[in-house]
From TrEMBL:
Name of the molecule in the record: Antitoxin
Gene3D superfamilies per the UniProt record, alphabetical: YefM-like domain (3.40.1620.10)
Lineage per the UniProt record: Bacteria, Pseudomonadati, Pseudomonadota, Gammaproteobacteria, Methylococcales
Functional summary from the UniProt entry: Antitoxin component of a type II toxin-antitoxin (TA) system.
InterPro entries on file: Antitoxin_Phd/YefM, YefM-like_sf
Organism of this sequence: Crenothrix polyspora
Family per similarity comment: Belongs to the phD/YefM antitoxin family.
Length: 89
């Protein structure tokens, strides 16, 4: 992934937009990463994958509830939080 600083991105915005159609472009400010510019198709794909993952995790919770692996809604929420936390690591 190409990285540029915020002032270059501002000055060369049109060029950065064109590059972002081919690959994500990282943008740093004061030497720290602050954003990534990507194409609409990549963004939509990420949103789709995120929604699919969330549906899958919710289904796991429902399956646990139906299989009596949890006893109440709070247990489902706690279990899902653990799964989400572990998946993020």
């Amino acid at each position: 992934m190409e990285i540029c600083n915020a002032s270059d991105a501002k000055r060369e915005f049109g060029e950065i937009l064109l590059k972002a159609q081919k690959e994500p472009i990282g943008i740093n400010k004061n030497g720290k990463p602050v954003a990534v510019m990507l194409s609409v198709s990549e963004y939509e794909e990420l949103q789709f994958l995120k929604a699919q993952w969330l549906k899958s995790e919710l289904q796991k919770g429902l399956d646990d509830l139906q299989a009596d692996r949890v006893k109440n809604g709070q247990d489902v929420i706690s279990l899902q939080r653990k799964r989400i936390t572990n998946a993020a690591v």
